[in-house]
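Hello forum,

I keep getting stuck at the same step: I have a sequence, I want structure tokens, and every attempt I make locally crashes halfway through. Rather than fight my setup again tonight, could one of you with a working pipeline run this one for me? It's a single chain of 362 residues.
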Amino acid sequence: MSLFSTAPLGNLTLANRVVMAPLGRARSDEQTRQPLPRVATYYRQRASAGLIISEATHVSSESVSRPGGSAIHDDAQVEAWKPVTAAVHAEGGRIFQQLFHLGRKAHPHRLPGNLLPVAPSAIAAIGEISTPSGQQPFPVPRALETEEIAQRVEDFRIAARNAGRAGFDGVEIHAANGYLIDQFLRDGANQRDDRYGGSVENRARLLLEIVDAAIAELGAERVGVRISPNVEYDGIRDSDPLALYSHVGRELQQRGIAYLHLIEPDTTPPERRLAPTLRELFTGPLILAGDFDRDSARQAVEQGRADFVAFGRLFIANPDLVERFRREAPLNAPDEASFYVGGDQGYIDYPFLEPRREAVAG
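Reply #2:
Ran it on my machine without issues. Output:
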């Protein structure tokens, strides 16, 4: 296999094995959470990726992140996403929408009625969140009642349906980075004693119910899942990651989903790496992510450790990253100050290797 060879994924054939990782850039409308016209330009510029995975997109009004974050839970948001998917498809690209719920990492100031965020258990995330009053500790969330969980599954179901209506080729269920699904998965955040807590099987139940709901809407070949077993920066940890994620891998294998997306840098200590185990348990396409460069990605693919490799920061600054990799050309440096704030600058003004005519988005 080569980083630049075509590859199957679900019911698609992708042009190469270079994936654009989900990157929240906070360029949507601050009130409506609808993507603005510049968002279509941004993704169209990067459509040479084998697959684009969109920024994490809220499935519910009770999941609200920084101003400018995007959502897909109402009809107006669906309509606003249509020019984005059309722009990518016009360039021959493919794009999945990443769906997520913040869970305990939201803040009452941003939620309707200043309600507490919800989580599996009343355990606050470690760290701080930006608010109009400055940085504040994450609040202690409200533990969901058992009967309330079905509505959160339904929120993901509707979001998956909306993603299909908006023209996305599929959806990625965000079960990583300490957000709601990850909070249910790991026993450091989930101390429930009902059917969603305790055993590995119970803690994985929410993820699998959401995956099943998305499959019912779109088909298994249009559903992917992202996990991050070694991410622990906000207190999201598990006492036995091997047992937990082995169970998840086996269950996702049975469902025949489009891919499994694993955040696991090559710098992960060998004793903590789960990619080899998951590669055996889940035989569908595996996407690896985590500080890869051209050479380490090429090695991962050629050695069969992954089918695809996802890049984040490199795609921010290099819309033509695939071509730069092909030519072994120099890379633009990202402007970190504009990652989450601003308009076109630091978003759609990074130079290409060769000048190109910019079409009008929409």
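The chain has one domain: 7-338. If your local run keeps crashing, start a new thread with the error log.
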